[in-house]
Protein 1
Amino acid sequence: MQEEHPTNPNAKATLEAALFSSAEPITLKEIADLAQLTKPQAVRLLEELKLEYITRQSGIEIISNEDAYSMRVRSDLDGKVSHLITETDMPQAMLKVLAIIAVEEPMIQSALVKLRGNRTYTYLDRLEEMELILRRKKGKTKEIYTTPKFRQYFHIEDPNKLITKGQLKLVEKEEPLEPPKEPEITKMKLK
């Protein structure tokens, strides 16, 4: 059975523009809806587009991950151009929290808060909204894990290549600690 051709003559260009414009992976359903295609038509055009990029040895590649597609700099060229990429929208403190989670995974939430301060709760809520972390109840606290979306967002193909716990210099809290209490001076009776 031959699959019908898309009725949208700009379907492939629409798919390419969508992938180029999106900072995050786009689901197959979103792609198909956007280009007014069936899912099989969208898959066929995406595969054609991927092949075009590979054939002309483009510096860009289209990748698929769990029913979602994205466009990125080819992994073998990433190191050569990564300095040109603009900074992430994340505040540096939130990025540090995320880095600690990635290295210590699974990270115990209470330990992370003790290390980084109470502002960590706000960062964790935001990271969870962004679907970069997952928190699971463990006793009175929670365990924190990174998600596949985290790996895709930061172009991490092999999580085992991340730095090890011993290589990570844990950063100080950003919130000031209470100043240490002055030692109590007790009067001693001289005999």
Protein 2
Amino acid sequence: MVLKNLPCFTLAGVFMQNQKKPKGPTPPRKLMQIKVSEVMNKRPREVREETSIDGLLERMMGQVETCFPVVDKNGKLVGIVTESDLLQMFHTQLPGATIGGARLREVLKYSAKTVGDIMTKNPITVSPDMTIGEAMNLMISHKVRRLPVVERGKLVGLLSLRNIIELYRIIR
């Protein structure tokens, strides 16, 4: 006996009329073995250390991405700047009586004029040949959502958690 026009609910509880139940989750092995080069953004927007904070804000407001790899004139990765770096710059309090290492960095970010003043220097990176599983391990252990993709010191892409989620949606 075939029942038609009965409601179907997904695991998230979303009502779907006359649609099949989704297949089970994608085996993690399949997702984890895909190479970073197949998923990464191959043309990330980038900035230079000397880019002004106003210039950075303008560029950030004009796009979906919330981070920029920072490169030198030869395309070598020197840092990364994110919305979090801007938040720290906006929120930094004036210094107290004593200034330690971390506190000093906060004060310097407060008085920042360029991207080089607020960027994270020497960010965690991945190579295009690494697997998504390896990249995700780095994301988890370092608590980051984006990883610059570097080959021979030069920026060749950017891998974000969003890229991985989009991949999951496609292959499941």
